[in-house]
Structure formats: C-alpha cells, structure tokens
C-alpha cells in the first residue's frame, strides 16, 4: 500500500501544510501542485523523510521548479501541474489531452481552489482543492492510497488547531 498526499494553493500558509502532514502519518510522498512553493520548502526542510514533488504555480516566482512533471508510483503514471496553463478554471479538456498524450493514468491539478474528481476512459483526474483559501467550504487536501495497483482518491478537510 502506498499513501500519497496531494496538496495545492497554500498561498503563504505553511502551517496548513504542516497540519496535513501531521494528520497523515504513514504518507511517504507528497505532490505539491503550486502556489506556495516557499511553504512546501519549509515542510520539506522539517520532514526530510517525506519525498516531495513540486510543480510551479502562477503565483510562484521560483524558476527552479517545473510547471508540470511525471512520476510513477506502483505502476501508475501521474501527470501533475498547477493547471493554469490548461485553463482548468474553464474546462479540464486540455489537461486530459495533455495527460493522455503522456500516457498518464492520473492527472493532478490545482489552481481552481475547488476539489474535483473524475474517472473517464481509464484516466483519473483529481484536484485536492486549496489547503488555505478554498473557493467554497473548508480548506481541503487530497489523499491517494494505492493498493494492488489501484488508486483510491479522497478529499479531506485540513485539520484546525
């Protein structure tokens, strides 16, 4: 079993990311989908056991991180990006096309600050929402548990302290 944290759009609230990591002991990896790279760097420095994969968002100014990338976990290929380059606030069509072109099984994106999940024709599409500035409702993050090569996606509320 593999336990992945999917987070996005912290926008200066590193504490929210720390609460997510604390709430999910046993998570081995975290994919940060942009807009708050400095927050992700803080979490990385204080949690060296956690493998963190980063994508740059439209509000991130670091040139050292990619806009999008691919990573494989347990035989599944994950395509991840912030999403602004694919106009995800309007449609997920461009994102899906890009993921399929890369032969990905999963497409992860942020940017909209709203949780999203869809499974269509063999492609999982997932947005964890925002850990600090949700468009509606409470701040959320994503949890992906992979068992026997099958991913299970969950939206969870960021704990309050």
Question: Explain this structure to me?
Answer:
The chain contains three helices and ten strands. The strands form two sheets. It has a five-stranded mixed β-sheet with strand order 3-2-1-9-10, with helices on one face. The protein is an alpha/beta fold. The longest helix has 10 residues, at 14-23. It starts with a strand and ends with a strand. The chain is globular, with a radius of gyration of 14 Å. The chain has helices at 14-23, 37-46, 93-101; strands spanning 2-7, 29-32, 51-54, 68-73, 76-81, 106-108, 115-120, 123-128, 140-147, 150-157. Helix content is 18%, strand content 35%.
Contiguous uncertain segments of 5+ residues: none
Biggest β-sheet, characterized?
5 strands, mixed
The number of helical segments is 3
Topology order in helix (H) and strand (E) letters: EHEHEEEHEEEEE
Radius of gyration from the alpha-carbon trace, in angstroms: 14 Å
Question: What is the compact description of this entry?
Answer:
With 161 residues, the protein is an alpha/beta fold.
Q: What attributes characterize this protein structure?
A:
single chain; 161 residues; alpha/beta; five-stranded mixed β-sheet; 18% helix
How is the secondary structure organized here?
Elements: E1 2-7, H1 14-23, E2 29-32, H2 37-46, E3 51-54, E4 68-73, E5 76-81, H3 93-101, E6 106-108, E7 115-120, E8 123-128, E9 140-147, E10 150-157
Parallel strand pairs: 1-2, 2-3, 5-6, 6-8
Antiparallel strand pairs: 1-9, 4-5, 7-8, 9-10
Helix pairs in contact: 1-2
